[in-house]
TrEMBL record:
GO cellular component: endoplasmic reticulum
Domain of life: Eukaryota
Full protein name: Endoplasmic reticulum protein 27
PANTHER family associated with the record: ENDOPLASMIC RETICULUM RESIDENT PROTEIN 27, PROTEIN DISULFIDE ISOMERASE
Pfam family, one: Thioredoxin_6
Cited InterPro entries: Thioredoxin-like_sf
GO biological process: protein folding; response to endoplasmic reticulum stress
Gene3D superfamilies linked to this entry: Glutaredoxin
Annotated transmembrane regions: none
CDD domains in the cross-refs: PDI_b'_family
Organism in which the protein naturally occurs: Buteo japonicus
Family named by the database record: Belongs to the protein disulfide isomerase family.
Amino acid sequence: MSAHHWKKLTQALSERTAVTVGFFACLQVDNDRRDLDMNSEDVDAEKMTRFIRMNELRLVTEYNPVTAIGVMQSSLQLHLLLITDKMSPRHPERMRRYRAAAELFKGKILFILVDSNLKSNEQTVSFFKLKKSQLPALAIFNTPDEKQDVLTLDEVSVERVQDFCNRFLQRMQKQLGRQSEGCFWTLRMGVVAGSP
């Protein structure tokens, strides 16, 4: 939507009283709802656009300073990062395969693209103890307990991504199963891709 259309929308909305704009953060990902109170005098097209950009999560969300807020607020606690060079001639095919794998875990794992060429992403790469020479790589991260795993790749394939995610989920289930005598397994059994 163009800035002109946003301006018209915000003018129309501001003419009403007690208006709240609800934004479902890309329902295909996490079903979370965040609201922007339109009663505030300082809401304009720029602020509304920023609100939407910060909160939109796609099937594969590119990590950057704007989307970081939506990523951190997602109800999905498992994040899978593809850390890769977007300038690589192999990038379009990698992304096609990564998106296909994301479909298998929709609503279960947040799939994130991290461009290794961006200076702002250097900390993310170093957090997973990776060097540029080890990329592309997958990094999975469980936000509540910060458990993580990394897999360096020659190439991205749906099968390798699926296997990496399933193995991580199974390890988590085993660890939690030992701690809570199988309670977690009963609740989360359908998380593994390919399970009913």
